[in-house]
Write a structure and sequence with these properties.
The protein has helices spanning 6-23, 31-38, 50-62, and strands at 28-29, 66-70, 73-74, 85-88. It has 90 residues and is α+β, with helices and mostly antiparallel strands. It starts with 5 loop residues before the first helix and ends with a strand.
Length: 90
């Protein structure tokens, strides 16, 4: 029986939080950093995880744990288009 992707969602959220903890209080990560951390292969299959990572980042924003930024400024996760960064909530 499948968990509907919740296991993957939790792994991605955990990867985002762990990567941010390693970067320090002002560090940011690219969503691809989390996708690569979660992906088990050594090819570019991590790319298929980019949208799940963005969704996980939005959930962390909603929980008050992270911010999504563009150009160093926080943006509304639902309006962000193009490249984003993820950082700890400030």
């Amino acid at each position: 029986m499948t968990d509907g992707g919740r296991g993957l969602d939790r792994r991605i959220e955990r990867a985002i939080v762990e990567l941010l903890e390693r970067r320090g209080p002002t560090g940011t990560i690219c969503p691809s950093d989390a996708a690569r951390a979660v992906y088990a292969g050594d090819d570019d299959g991590w790319r298929a995880l980019m949208e799940p990572v963005r969704r996980a980042a939005r959930r962390l924003v909603a929980a008050g744990e992270a911010e999504i930024t563009q150009g160093g400024q926080p943006v509304d996760p639902d309006r962000a288009r193009g490249p984003i960064r993820i950082r700890r909530a400030r």
